[in-house]
Design brief:
272 residues; alpha/beta; five-stranded parallel sheet; five-stranded mixed sheet
């Protein structure tokens, strides 16, 4: 019988002594967080300074790209759901080619690269080409968004788990375990969910969800132009259309903004 397997990290050692965190001929997959540059990890901030080539996604903020070193070559390889996109094959080809040319390559994704970031496809491309890599996590949009409404993703007596869902995948709107999501007290964070709002509403109600279930949509979480829509499952598509969000948005099923935070926001608007 085969015993347990152990693995050693394939990334270089990193310390506070000034050691570089990127190697030549290697790809670093990094999460730039939700957009606020102050939410970058120290490791990713250092990688931005060291990289020769930065292949960045569409949702990486301009403030974060401004932290790149003067020597860095910036390449926009962004994708947009149902919109213009660079093919995944082209992204992988560019990434591998730069690494094989001996560059320090930073593949910069928004949020955390391990959550809906097509990371596995790009890791496979590196492995097949014999290119070394490392992964640098980042703060995902759900964490920043839920903090902005004064809530917690989990709560004793309410929900002992939380689901991270995608509103659509490569085949269209993504199906989920709607019966489980429709249960009282469930909490889910839907990434890329603006266009699928009516689809989600229909599936939830079809599986018995309360139409009064709270829903919160946060646009541009953590950024200066953040906006918050507080609504219900019944009114979600209508209210979202009226809000006319044009930035990246995250939808929370089962969560409303904490009332004390909402009251403070109203007071600040009155004093402004």
């Amino acid at each position: 019988m085969t015993g347990p397997m152990t693995h050693t990290a394939n990334s270089p050692a990193h310390s506070r002594s000034g050691m570089c965190c990127l190697n030549r001929g290697q790809v670093a997959f990094a999460g730039s967080g939700p957009g606020d540059p102050e939410l970058l990890t120290l490791k990713v901030a250092r990688a931005l300074q060291e990289a020769d080539v930065i292949l960045f996604d569409r949702l990486v903020s301009a403030e974060i790209l401004a932290l790149a070193g003067a020597q860095a070559q910036l390449e926009d390889v962004g994708k947009e759901g149902f919109g213009p996109s660079m093919s995944q094959e082209e992204i992988c080809a560019r990434m591998v080619a730069h690494a094989q040319a001996g560059h320090k390559v930073l593949r910069l994704k928004s949020g955390d690269p391990t959550i809906f970031g097509r990371l596995d496809e790009e890791l496979t491309a590196c492995e097949e080409a014999g290119v070394a890599y490392q992964i640098m996590p980042g703060i995902t949009a759900a964490s920043a968004a839920v903090a902005s409404i004064g809530q917690s993703l989990t709560q004793r007596g309410r929900n002992s788990s939380v689901r991270f869902l995608t509103g659509h995948d490569t085949r269209g709107f993504a199906d989920q375990d709607w019966a489980a999501l429709a249960r009282p007290g469930e909490v889910a964070a839907i990434y890329m969910g603006k266009k699928s709002a009516r689809f989600v509403q229909g599936r939830m109600i079809m599986h018995g969800a309360n139409r009064a279930t709270p829903v919160t949509v946060i646009e541009n979480a953590s950024r200066a132009n953040q906006r918050v829509l507080e609504t219900t499952l019944e009114r979600l598509p209508t209210d979202l259309a009226a809000a006319d969000f044009d930035g990246p948005a995250l939808t929370f099923l089962g969560l409303a903004p904490r009332q004390s935070l909402a009251a403070l926001s109203d007071l600040n608007m009155e004093l402004a």
